Amino acid sequence: MTDSTETGQKGQGGLTRAALFGLCPRCRARSLWDAPAGFAPACRGCGLAFADYEPRGRGLYFVLIPLTFLLIAGASKLDDLVRPPLWLLLGGIVLVVPAVIMGALRLVKAWLLIARLRAAGVVP
Hints:
The protein is mainly alpha-helical. It is 52% helix and 4% strand. A two-stranded antiparallel sheet has the order 1-2.
């Protein structure tokens, strides 16, 4: 078993680094994300082609639809419990919903990308 200091990995795991900071799974350069939830075509550090392994299609709906229902239920429950003014509730929704959706998309897309890269033998 290797120590985390030997492999240069301190603190967070590969998935967390990829999702939050946009670190390449191979070279750890900050080049994974080109948009808030969109991969760059390739790594600027090592040239790894992210576009070849990017998760696309309807599979991400299994994350977005339940998350959307949870956000709607949470907003409804907040409205029932606290009864904030409409402008405050809508303002909060406008800020919270995109942040939660983008965070979830980044996490799931990074997880799928790393799984596909490992299955292909590109990264350990």
